[in-house]
Amino acid sequence: MKPEQLVERLKKEISNPAFTWKHDQKTDRVRLHHSQLNKGMEISLPEILAKFEVKKDKAIHEIVYTINQTFEAMERELEGLERSTSFIYPVIRSTSFPVKSNEGHDFVVTDHTAETRVFYALDLGNTYRLLDVNMLEQLKMTESEVKEAARFQVRKLSTEMKEDHVGGNVFYFVNANDGYDASRILNEQFLSEMQAKIEGDMTLSVPHQDVLIIGDIRNETGYDVLAQLTMHFFTVGKVPITSLSFIYENGELEPIFILAKNRVQKEKKD
After folding, report:
1. From the CA atom positions of the chain, what is the Rg in Å?
2. C-alpha dist (Å) from residue 249 to 129, 252, 256
3. What contacts 44, CB < 8 A, 6 or more positions away?
4. How many other C-beta atoms are found inside a 10 Å radius of the C-beta of residue 26?
5. By CB atoms within 10 Å of each CB, which of 104, 106, 135, 143 scores lowest?
6. pLDDT of 244-257, one tens digit each?
7. Are the C-beta atoms of 180 and 92 separated by less than 8 Å?
8. Could you give the 3-state DSSP secondary structure of residue 83?
9. pLDDT score for 84
10. Is 0.85 surpassed by the pTM of this model?
11. Which parts of the chain fold into alpha helices (H)?
């Protein structure tokens, strides 16, 4: 199959009048543009032809699927922009996470702890897109309005938990797998309610995106268990954040290793 034949085949497979096709014969790349979305993508014909030699029609079906999925995601993103505030959520990331998008635009962020930073996401259903400053104009919102909308939305997320008892300590796990489990650490009302029921030290851990661990630490064994738990979750998470845990008291977060050090110093003085 020649490149020109492949282009014609793809046009037949994707018979959408909104598409325009531009074939650059020098590079053998095709630019697809969707007139309604005003967005486009490029595909490399030699790569598809190489796969066609091995997979035959399956290679065609794969690239057609990829193209359709890409533009469907773009459409969901556009719809999300139009729905705006009800679909903006905060997202916790490590401070080592890039603060600029692939296009070089600054993400909208808020400092959180020395280990964590808050980003903001536009929910698109099965996925989300982190908001950068270039998208604020499309949203017709300011940074402060985005952050306020996210604070409001995080309070609406479910706080259903699983509970586990180990060595006289209690551990609660928020694991809804909605992409915002770690974000519950920003729900001050929820944390205040938990603090009222906890008997020992209240700890918070966000080892990866899809879990928030709340600890009711009543003895030294609890800290050992917590360290093992957070390290395990940190190593298996798809989007790791931090293996450190935090003591939560009066709305403040303090890394446990600092608190432990202070305790040792206090014991020596006594």
Report:
1. 24
2. 32, 5, 12
3. 28, 29
4. 6
5. 104
6. 999 999 889 999 87
7. no
8. helix
9. 60
10. no
11. 3-13, 45-55, 57-83, 136-139, 143-154, 188-197, 220-236, 256-269
- Give the pLDDT of residue 139: 81
29-64 as b/e, with b when 16 or more CB fall inside 10 Å?
A: bbebebeeeeebeebebeebbeebeeeeeebbeebe
Report pLDDT for 262: 42
Low-confidence ranges of the chain (pLDDT < 50): 258-270
Backbone angles phi, psi at 75, to 5 degrees: -65, -40
Token pair 């202070």 is found at 262
Residue 256 is encoded by which pair of tokens? 């446990």
- Complete edge-to-edge strand list for the sheet that includes strand 39-44: 19-24, 29-34, 39-44
Which tokens sit at 216?
């009711």
Q: Residue 38: what are its φ and ψ, rounded to 5°?
A: 55, 40
Terminal Cα-to-Cα distance of the chain (whole angstroms): 83
According to DSSP, residue 56 is labeled T
Task: Give the pLDDT confidence score for residue 259 in this predicted structure.
Answer: 46
If DSSP codes are grouped into helix, strand and coil, which group holds residue 178?
coil
Residues 6+ apart with CB under 8 A from 79: none
User: What one-letter code names the amino acid at 160?
Assistant: E
The sign of the torsion formed by the CA atoms of 80, 160, 212, 255 equals positive
245 contacts 253 by C-beta, under 8 angstroms: no
Q: What are all long-range contacts of 142-151, with beta carbons under 8 Å and residues at least 24 apart?
A: 143/108, 145/85, 146/88, 146/108, 146/120, 147/90, 147/108, 147/110, 147/120, 149/84, 149/85, 149/88, 150/88, 150/89, 150/90, 150/120, 151/90, 151/186
Asked whether 245 and 232 are in contact (CB, 8 A), the reply is no
